[in-house]
């Protein structure tokens, strides 16, 4: 059986009873909810009109198929799977409940509801709120909110006395209530006039005083001015005068007392300044014309669009099904969601092209395009701002936009080309040139930041180059081993002693001050004097000053064995040993125990020398051959052993520490240390630098001494030699001193320099912009984000020297375990040598003494006389 015969049978039998055709389009079912409670007395009238129109539509519009209609008087219905579409005429709350139920079954939902009702998602439904003429403002603002065109957390509403209290209440409600699309928001209200007569008195004075009462902290506020057309110019004038408009604020003017005679608001562009975010929504309703509207009109119009779309869908599916087998058609036929989308697109197209209900009511959207226009070359003599038509609004289909309502909020500078100015100053700005001297590439820290700003604020840039004392490097040699991937090599950077941010070419300041360029793409030191002619962004870097000194040398370890104790400790210990010997001797001698027991002997502890050697042996934990027998002498020896235990343990522990951690010379770490050694060490710093400027005006005593005692900076070779010899200290940026230390290491392979631990006189470095530029706050926001993400710090680290063995010694003394070497043990050999020398000397003295005594004894002996 062919598809055409089957279709004819279905039509004859009735679409509702023919279930064998594989397409749901031939037996589509539509549910129509006519809320009796919502419509009240008009219920029967609307139901009869719908039934009459459906009979007409089935006969005249739906020519290639049929549709089964189920009508309900209450919104509390069960959405069935066989439904293809749903038409509801009910309250906003019930409309959304029905939508959620229809969404689960992929139904096309056509909703006719009350005013101030958030529209259903446009990809699933058509929503038509019934709005009285002149009452469109709340619904219009609600549509903008649900479309996230006014996604503001707080709004300041400025209104005049032409808006009624009821309308104002509805506006407040739609701007604050929470919906499924947007969260709740806060508002502040400001009435310009308290009564109608006030409008005709002193308009300018009233408006100015009211706007002046707004908080000065509203730098990122959002304003909606619902005012008469005559007040717009006045509000715009005073808002700019009171600095309530800038690149951070957004102003939306809602003008209801206009009509179709007002074609555009371009005459207001003279009140829009560079960097403003200003948009207008004004009534463009047709006057002196016949307009259809109301619930009945929209019912007939939407049903007509649906029937036409359904008829087209049936024809399309029959044509497709007739070309394939039944099995193939079951595999390729459209799904329910695809049919829903097809019908929705057809309905929207019909309503857009042929819809007539409430078409007289129309609002236009226009916005100011201002960002970066003062830096563009205009072919015509136009003002800074341009007024762009960006969309329209109708009650039937809501807001239709062809561009952003606030284009600069979402699109920044809209790809405009901004002029910048720069000069070669590595590592901040690195300009790569070709053989002819033309700049072909921009690099360095500043241009990395500029590139991020250009990406986030959506602009391109053209750079004007100012020549300076520091010309671009023609060579493209890269020191890749140090992580540099720019045109200037590592050696270029460390040899460039003139790199500074404290002074820039005068031409750059003039171009920025005169607003010839949008920004100076160069790092510049922030000072109060400079703020008088240009403005600064938030700091991109803060460079601290330090000084470089000769690395402290390791002290001689020849006398390491005496290091655990100070000199006074050794003197006290020696005195104790010498004194304890006689004390033990006299205690031993005076004790009557030996005489009582008859055991006194002449050897052992009976001599002072033996007692002293015994105490010395006990100190070295060697003991002695003789111990006292008397308890009194034993108490003395026992007490001495306890002392020896404490002394020996302390000595051994400290000796291990001195062996592990070599002792260095006392380093110079602070400016105070430097001043204390001013008699042996000189210092210098770069002239015409930020540090010198700070020293001149400082009242700090330390800074004053540094300034007065500074010497003229010697040439580089002499300065390196003086610092290495420990006779000179150089003060500069920490990063430049790190370059110097790295260069010295590369040349000598030794770590001769060290940085002081104290950081002082922080120098803030920022980008420069024109005074009173409206974009400073936005630029600062982006710089803050770069700091928070760590990108700027990472870019700075890319230009720092890579870690080496000197880097570990910059911060502290080496803490790894130390292997004992000959330098550590040389003191022990010195002691042994001195001991041997003294022993040999004493032996000689003993021989001489013994010989002398022997000769003396021989003289005393009487010799026999022999003749």
Structural class: alpha/beta
Shape: elongated
CATH superfamily of the domain at 133-289 and 362-414: Response regulator
Please describe the biggest sheet, giving its number of strands, its sense, and whether it closes into a barrel.
9 strands, mixed
Strand content: 15-25%
CATH class of the domain at 133-289 and 362-414: Alpha Beta
In percent, how helical is the residue content?
40-55%
Number of helices: 28
Mean pLDDT: 81
Return the CATH topology of the domain at 133-289 and 362-414: Rossmann fold
Number of strands: 24
Structural Rg: 49 Å
Q: Residue ranges: pLDDT <50 for 5 or more in a row? A: 1-22, 471-491, 493-497, 809-816
| Termini gap | 179 Å
Structure characterization notes:
With 867 residues, the protein is α/β, with parallel strands linked by helices. Among the domains are: 1-130 and 294-356, Response regulator (Rossmann fold), CATH 3.40.50; 133-289 and 362-414, Response regulator (Rossmann fold); 564-655, Helix Hairpins (Orthogonal Bundle), CATH 1.10.287; 823-857. It is 42% helix and 16% strand. The chain contains 28 helices and 24 strands. The strands form four sheets. Strands 14, 17, 18, 19, 20, 21, 22, 23 and 24 form a nine-stranded mixed sheet that branches. Strand 15 and strand 16 (439-443) form a beta hairpin. Helix 7 packs across helix 8 (229-241) and helix 16 packs across helix 18 (608-619). The longest helix has 39 residues, at 822-860. The chain is elongated. The model is unreliable at 1-22, 471-491, 493-497 and 809-816 (pLDDT under 50).
């Amino acid at each position: 059986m062919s598809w055409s015969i089957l279709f004819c049978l279905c039509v004859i039998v009735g679409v509702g009873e023919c279930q064998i055709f594989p397409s749901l389009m031939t037996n589509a079912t539509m549910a129509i909810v006519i809320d009796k409670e919502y419509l009240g007395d008009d219920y029967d009238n609307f139901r009869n009109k719908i039934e009459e129109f459906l009979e007409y539509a089935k006969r005249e519009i739906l020519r290639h198929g049929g549709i089964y209609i189920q009508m309900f008087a209450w919104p509390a219905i069960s959405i069935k799977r066989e439904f293809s579409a749903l038409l509801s005429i009910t309250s906003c709350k019930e409309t959304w409940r029905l939508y959620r139920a229809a969404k689960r079954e992929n139904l096309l939902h056509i909703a006719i509801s009350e005013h101030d009702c958030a529209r259903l998602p446009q990809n699933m439904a058509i929503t038509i709120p019934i709005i009285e003429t002149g009452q469109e403002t709340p619904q219009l603002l609600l549509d903008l909110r649900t479309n996230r065109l006014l996604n503001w957390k707080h709004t300041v509403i400025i209104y005049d006395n032409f808006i009624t209290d009821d309308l104002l209440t509805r506006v407040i409600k739609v701007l604050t209530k929470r919906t499924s699309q947007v969260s709740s928001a806060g508002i502040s209200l400001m009435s310009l006039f308290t009564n109608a007569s006030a409008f005709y008195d002193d308009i300018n004075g009233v408006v100015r005083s009211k706007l002046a009462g707004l908080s000065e902290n509203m730098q990122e506020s959002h304003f909606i001015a619902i005012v008469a057309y005559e007040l717009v110019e006045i509000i715009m004038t005073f808002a700019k005068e009171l600095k309530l408009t800038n690149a951070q604020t957004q102003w939306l003017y809602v003008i209801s007392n206009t009509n179709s005679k007002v074609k555009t608001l371009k005459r207001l562009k003279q009140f829009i300044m560079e960097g403003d975010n200003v948009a207008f929504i004004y009534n463009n309703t047709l006057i002196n014309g016949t307009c259809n509207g109301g619930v009945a009109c929209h019912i007939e119009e939407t049903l007509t669009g649906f029937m036409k779309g359904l008829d087209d869908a049936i024809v399309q599916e029959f044509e497709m099904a007739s070309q394939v087998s039944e099995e193939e058609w079951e595999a390729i036929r459209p799904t329910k969601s695809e049919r829903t989308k097809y019908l929705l697109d057809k309905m929207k197209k019909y309503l857009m092209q042929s819809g007539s209900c409430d078409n007289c009511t129309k609002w236009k959207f226009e916005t100011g395009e201002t960002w970066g226009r003062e830096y563009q070359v205009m072919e015509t003599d136009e003002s800074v701002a341009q007024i762009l038509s960006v969309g329209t609004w109708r009650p039937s289909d809501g807001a239709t936009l062809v561009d952003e309502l606030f284009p600069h909020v979402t699109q920044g500078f809209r790809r405009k080309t901004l002029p910048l100015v720069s000069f070669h100053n590595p590592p901040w700005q690195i300009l790569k040139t070709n053989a002819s001297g033309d700049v072909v590439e921009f690099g360095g820290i500043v241009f990395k930041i500029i590139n991020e700003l250009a990406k986030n604020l959506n602009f391109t840039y053209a750079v004007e180059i100012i020549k300076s004392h520091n010309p671009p490097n023609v060579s493209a040699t890269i020191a890749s081993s140090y992580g540099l991937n720019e045109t200037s090599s590592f050696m270029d950077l460390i040899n460039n002693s003139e790199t500074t941010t404290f002074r820039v070419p005068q031409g750059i300041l003039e171009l920025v001050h005169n607003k010839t360029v949008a920004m100076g793409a160069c790092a510049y030191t922030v000072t109060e004097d400079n703020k008088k002619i240009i403005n600064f962004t938030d700091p991109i870097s803060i460079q601290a000053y330090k000084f470089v000194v000769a690395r402290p040398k390791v002290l001689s370890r020849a006398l390491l064995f005496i290091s655990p104790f100070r000199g006074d400790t050794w003197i006290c210990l020696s005195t104790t040993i010498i004194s304890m010997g006689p004390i033990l001797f006299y205690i031993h001698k005076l004790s009557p125990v030996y005489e009582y027991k008859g055991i006194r002997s002449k050897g052992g502890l009976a001599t002072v020398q033996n007692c002293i050697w015994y105490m010395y042996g006990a100190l070295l934990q060697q003991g002695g051959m003789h111990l006292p027998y008397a308890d009194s002498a034993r108490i003395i020896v026992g007490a001495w052993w306890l002392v020896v235990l404490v002394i020996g343990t302390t000595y051994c522990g400290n000796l291990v520490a001195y062996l592990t951690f070599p002792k260095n010379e006392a380093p110079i770490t602070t400016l105070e240390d430097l001043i204390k050694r001013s008699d042996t060490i000189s210092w210098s710093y770069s002239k015409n630098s930020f540090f010198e400027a700070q020293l001149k005006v400082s009242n700090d005593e330390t800074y004053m001494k540094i300034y007065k005692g500074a010497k003229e900076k010697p040439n580089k070779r002499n300065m390196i030699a003086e610092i290495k010899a420990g006779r000179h200290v150089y003060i500069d940026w920490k990063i430049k001193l790190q370059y110097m230390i790295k260069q010295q290491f590369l040349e000598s392979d030794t770590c001769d320099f060290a940085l002081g631990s104290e950081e002082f006189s922080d120098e803030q470095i920022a980008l420069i912009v024109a005074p009173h530029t409206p974009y400073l706050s936005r630029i600062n926001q982006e710089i803050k984000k770069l700091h928070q993400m760590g990108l700027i710090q990472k870019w700075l680290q890319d230009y720092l020297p890579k870690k080496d063995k000197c880097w570990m010694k910059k911060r502290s003394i080496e803490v790894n375990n130390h292997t004992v070497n000959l330098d550590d043990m040389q003191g022990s050999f010195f002691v042994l040598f001195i001991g041997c020398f003294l022993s040999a000397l004493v032996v000689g003295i003993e021989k001489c003494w013994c010989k002398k005594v022997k000769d003396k004894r021989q003289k005393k002996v009487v010799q026999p006389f022999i003749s």
